[in-house]
Design goal:
Layout: H1 6-14, E1 22-26, E2 39-40, E3 50-51, E4 55-58, E5 69-76, E6 90-94, E7 106-109, E8 113-116, E9 119-122, E10 132-133, E11 144-146, H2 154-162, E12 167-171, E13 175-181, E14 185-186, E15 197-198, H3 201-211, E16 215-222, H4 226-238, E17 243-247, H5 258-264, E18 268-272, E19 276-277, E20 283-287, E21 290-295, H6 299-317, E22 328-332, E23 343-352, E24 358-362, H7 371-376, E25 379-383, E26 395-400
Parallel strand pairs: 5-6, 13-16, 13-17, 14-15, 17-21, 19-23, 22-24
Antiparallel strand pairs: 1-12, 2-11, 3-10, 4-6, 4-7, 5-9, 8-9, 18-20, 20-21, 22-26, 23-24, 23-25, 25-26
Helix pairs in contact: 3-6
Length: 401
């Protein structure tokens, strides 16, 4: 089987990725979630003309003379409007957020008034309408203020609350079951045997799933045993996983059983083996309603493939835009040799020179087991298949991390 180009593999993966259904979620649990329907305001904000400052509600036409004296006829704290009407020569003590009393059209701030009992003297007349927030200044009932597929942040949730929405229509988070495979793996915190290592991929992939808006489900570690592996796969299916992510075991070794077991369970293989580095053994398919994404076992390969394939798939299932283009370029600090037939993703640091240019410096070693380099990287330099050698100072495409 020939190696599939990255772009073709991504197109196949996303070709029939339809958004998940809508669910109603309490406002308090909506942070970071994807809005599924337009959000319409149920009220006008503010619902009445309100004072923007502490002071006195007055009629502007009463302030035509210097040091005007007015009679204070009442008080209006926030939440308790004054029920009377302001007549000629009168004022009402108001506080921020209180309704402007009927008859008044201007707020005289307290610093510009001198009070003596029930009388105030105007020290500095305000402009007409000063410090009055008109009804509907922010928004009106019926306004569509939030549109899908918006990822909701603290700003959007504050607005939704002001619109009087306690429950929001959101895309259901795709359930992503994550299964690590291999006799050599033990969980972090355990004591590995003399021939074992600590499993790391599942922690990074689970965090990536959360960052993308999905809900990770940890299926644990399956030994290199077809029966145990099949049982774990059935657990993902019965758990109604939208995506099953397997980590390792999808290559061509004698102990790489994932593809064989998935085939026995009925998986329809979409593609396998991609023209990329790191990540050549990537596999994708369908197992009933569950999408399968088989990531390589090498830690860096797994995480880079997760970024390039799992992230767009989750975004597509959330109805969010899939960013497939190259986000930016940077200036190469050291030369790079000619590339071979696989698209290369080169780990590199990212910095800025004295002219504000982004400088990208590739690490000299790119072994796909070296997580330390990935953690220190600021970008991946993207080297298309058969890309010619490039000199230092050249602009190269980069994927920022």
């Amino acid at each position: 089987m020939s190696l599939m180009p990255v772009e073709e593999a991504l197109r196949k993966l996303l070709a029939d990725a339809a958004p998940t259904e809508t669910e109603q979620v309490p406002l308090a649990r909506a942070n970071g979630r994807i809005l599924a329907a337009p959000l319409v305001s149920t009220r006008t904000q503010p619902p009445f003309a309100a004072s923007a400052m502490d002071g006195y509600a007055v009629r502007h036409r009463d302030l035509q003379e210097d040091r005007t004296r007015l009679e204070v006829i009442g008080e209006a704290p926030a939440g308790h409007g004054f029920t009377g009407q302001v007549q000629a020569g009168q004022a009402v003590r108001v506080f921020t957020g209180a309704p402007v009393p009927e008859g008044a059209d201007t707020i005289l701030i307290q610093e510009n008034a001198s009070r003596d009992g029930d009388r105030i003297t105007v020290l500095e007349p305000p402009a007409i309408g000063a410090h009055v927030r008109p009804a509907g200044l922010d928004f009106a009932e019926g306004d569509v203020l939030l549109e899908p597929p918006l990822k909701l942040s603290y700003r959007h949730l504050a607005l939704a609350a002001a619109m009087n929405h306690a429950v929001l229509p959101l895309r259901r988070q795709p359930r992503v079951a994550i299964l690590a495979t291999g006799d050599e793996l033990v969980r972090p915190g355990a004591t590995p045997g003399p021939d074992q290592i600590i499993a790391s991929n599942h922690a990074g992939i689970a965090a990536l799933v959360e960052d993308c808006g999905g809900a990770p489900v940890d299926l644990g570690i399956s030994p290199d045993n077809p029966i145990a592996l099949a049982e774990h796969v059935r657990g993902a299916i019965t758990g109604h996983a939208d995506i099953l992510v397997t980590l390792g075991g999808a290559s061509v070794g004698d102990h790489d059983l994932v593809q064989e077991v998935l085939g026995q369970q009925g998986m329809d293989l979409a593609f396998w083996r991609i023209a990329m580095r790191p990540g050549k053994p990537l596999m994708a398919g369908r197992l009933g309603a569950t999408r399968v994404l088989g990531l390589p076992g090498n830690p860096v390969s797994s995480l880079v493939c997760g970024l390039l394939f799992l992230k767009p798939l989750i975004r597509a299932l959330l109805g969010a835009p899939v960013e497939t283009g190259l986000p930016s370029t940077a200036v190469l600090a050291t030369p790079l040799a000619q590339n071979d037939r696989r698209q290369d993703y080169v780990r590199a640091t990212l910095s800025e020179d004295g002219n504000g240019r982004q400088i990208v410096t590739p690490f000299s070693r790119q072994d796909s087991s070296m997580l330390n380099l990935l953690a220190r990287s600021g970008a991946l330099i993207i080297r298309p298949p058969h890309a010619p050698a490039v000199d230092a100072g050249s602009e190269v495409p980069v994927l920022r991390l």
